[in-house]
Amino acid sequence: MKLKHIAVATMAATALFNITAQASEVEVLHYWTSGGEAKSVAELKKMMEAKGITWKDFAVAGGGGENAMTALKARVIAGSAPTAAQIKGPSIQEWGKEGVLANIDAAAIEGKWDASLPKVVSSIMKYQGHYVAAPVNVHRVNWLWVNPEVLKKAGAKAPGNWAEFFDAADKIKKAGMIAIAHGGQPWQDATVFESVALGVGGADFYKKAIVQLDPASLTGPTMIKTFDTLAKIKTYIDKGAAGRDWNLATAMVINGKAGMQFMGDWAKGEFTAAGKVPGKDYLCLTAPGTEKAFTFNIDSLTMFKVKDDQQAAQLSLASAVMSPEFQEVFNLNKGSIPARSGVSRAKFDSCAIKSMNDMEATSASGGLVPSFAHGMAIDSAKAGAIQDVIAKFMNSNMTSQAAVVALAKAAKTR
Ligand code: BGC
């Protein structure tokens, strides 16, 4: 009898312990594993731990997040979704349709999210009118990262348009350095492609071709010119690019092995982590011809349905993500800018200030466009098929004519 009581008491205590252990834990799936990225996400972990909530890290390496999405699908199918996952853009709607996302309106109402987020951001975070995700930042994708020391050695000047870009690339190559640092992975190929399309055709063309998938724009002369430009860019990429991670390509620009890289401003996180100063050690230029446009890529933590006893911790994570303190420190490390208003600009560098000003200006002018390469513009099936065409173009001698035909076909993927 006594023994039985003890057993029951122990069981109850264990159950209680489990409840509290679970209640104060968040498991977060992300792919922030490079130097700058890891520093950024560590800040969120610190904040959660300061609230007494355990951080269970579910990091899946692989730039652009393809591996992470595969891991996430497996977990959701197995019925053990994490508390939150780094999912963005139209994919949030795709997950919403599966019925697995959590409603976090309670955090959004308390934190007045509607009032502190631009509409372009808040609408992505909602599924059927309810918040299911919290935005951490706005990345700009149409950047060109440049090492001014390499330019100087090569006798080249910072490029402002395509002619100057290819002139600089020629000079860097002739001087025995690598002109363009690149990693041959499909998402990196797609990143270069979208900046080239934007620079060659402008924001209206980009919207028509890459967001609305208008067949005539996908196969017309401007898209041919886009692929021709891409083919020319290929000739300045070194043989070692195949499979190279993006941060290793950035490191080549940082240490002066290469002159320039097309990449979103998570690359700035690597320059920052290496102690480099913008305007002095490196230049953040808009990709040639894209000065008046802005490809946005908004990272967000999307929340999955959790057991009742875990909801408080989940809402606490959502509130932390949207706090001005987090948005400041995370983005100082990440290279991006805060997604919300009300964060002081004081500590941000000249690249971030340019990004903030340009986002505002392009939002008014119509130059603000969603990044296709980073899952902001079209659904994942179409984006995947288009990305495959671009990767094939980058890795073969496919003609521009054949590429546009394949592109238009891929755009019809369901
Ligand atoms: C994400 C960034 C990340 C980058 C490299 C992008 O798609 O939005 O947060 O740093 O990929 O993995």
Low-confidence segments: 1-21
User: What value does the average pLDDT take?
Assistant: 95
Rg, nearest Å: 23 Å
CATH top level assignment of the largest domain: Alpha Beta
Distance between the termini: 65 Å
CATH homologous superfamily caption of the largest domain: Periplasmic binding protein-like II
CATH architecture group name of the largest domain: 3-Layer(aba) Sandwich
Structural class: alpha/beta
Work out the strand percent.
5-15%
Hetero compounds: beta-D-glucopyranose
Characteristic terms for this protein:
single chain; 414 residues; four-stranded mixed beta sheet; five-stranded mixed beta sheet; disordered N terminus; D-Maltodextrin-Binding Protein, domain 2; alpha/beta; 2 domains; binds beta-D-glucopyranose; globular; 54% helix
Characterise the protein shown here.
The chain has 414 residues and is an alpha/beta fold. The protein folds into two domains: 2-138 and 297-351, Periplasmic binding protein-like II (D-Maltodextrin-Binding Protein, domain 2), CATH 3.40.190; 140-296 and 364-410, 3-Layer(aba) Sandwich (D-Maltodextrin-Binding Protein, domain 2). It has 19 helices and 14 strands. The protein has helices at residues 2-23, 35-50, 66-77, 90-97, 105-110, 113-116, 119-125, 148-154, 162-174, 186-211, 215-219, 221-234, 246-254, 266-273, 311-322, 324-334, 350-365, 380-394, 400-410, and strands at 25-30, 54-59, 84-86, 126-127, 130-131, 133-135, 139-140, 143-146, 178-180, 258-262, 283-286, 294-297, 300-303, 368-370. Helix 2 (35-50) crosses helix 14, helix 12 crosses helix 19 (400-410) and helix 18 (380-394) runs antiparallel to helix 19. The protein is globular, with a radius of gyration of 23 Å. Residues 31, 37, 63-65, 139, 266, 297, 299, 374 line the site of beta-D-glucopyranose.
